[in-house]
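step=encode ok
step=design start
structure_in=
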């Protein structure tokens, strides 16, 4: 159970606190539980959506989005902001891009990116509520966190040392692919054709974003992993709202 608690502590703002730094092997195994954390988030959002039935729709969507952000403590939004600044300010240079990502300050491009991504999520949530596609609230967080597992399975981690390197070095790869396949199957079983569409959108976005990371950096970092999650969640939610 320790890897699950590690995943919950790292990915969520839920009151889970471990007494000390886990062993690297436990850190690597925690990646296997990332989709389960996503499923937990989805079930919380699904239950909240039911509880908010009858509320004004704009307030309904705003509360869902607020809880969605709070569940992760805005961890991945921070990665998106850092990545957006670095991609523009790095001017195509690998070392400059990595250096900018380490700067805790956010520039105008980071703010604009966050506003646009949250605006699109909000608008898509409105559509999902109107269309009564409540299952989207379950599968989108699941897909987003499964994508992190997929990223570490397929992409080198480019910052030596630290938590990300321990995750990459000690991830059980065969088990990781099985968890990824089970996550995809679960989406289809939960959402049917909509789940299939969600997976196609996520796969297309994943391949494109991974290509950008590898071309610029030679791999991924914690910040670009967070950016990938946020952008895929937004894209899948918008795709489900449109189709």
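sequence_out=
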């Amino acid at each position: 159970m320790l890897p699950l608690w590690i995943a919950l502590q790292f990915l969520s703002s839920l009151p889970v606190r471990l007494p000390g730094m886990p062993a690297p092997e436990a850190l690597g195994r925690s990646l296997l539980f990332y989709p389960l954390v996503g499923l937990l988030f989805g079930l919380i959002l699904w239950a909240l959506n039911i509880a908010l039935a009858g509320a004004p729709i704009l307030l309904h969507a705003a509360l869902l989005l607020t809880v969605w952000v709070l569940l992760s403590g805005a961890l991945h939004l921070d990665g998106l902001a850092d990545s957006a600044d670095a991609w523009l300010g790095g001017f195509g240079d690998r070392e400059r891009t990595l250096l900018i990502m380490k700067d805790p300050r956010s520039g105008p491009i980071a703010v604009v990116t966050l506003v646009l991504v949250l605006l699109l999520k909000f608008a898509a949530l409105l559509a999902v509520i109107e269309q009564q596609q409540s299952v989207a609230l379950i599968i989108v967080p699941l897909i987003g966190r499964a994508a992190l597992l997929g990223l570490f399975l397929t992409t080198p981690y480019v910052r030596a040392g630290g938590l990300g390197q321990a995750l990459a070095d000690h991830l059980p790869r065969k088990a990781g692919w099985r968890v990824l396949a089970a996550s995809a199957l679960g989406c289809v079983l939960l959402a049917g054709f909509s789940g299939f569409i969600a997976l196609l959108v996520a796969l297309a976005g994943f391949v494109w974003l991974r290509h950008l990371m590898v071309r610029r950096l030679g791999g991924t970092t914690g910040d670009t992993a967070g950016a990938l999650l946020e952008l895929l969640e937004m894209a899948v939610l918008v795709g489900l709202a449109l189709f």
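step=design ok
step=annotate ok -> Residues 45-242 form one domain.
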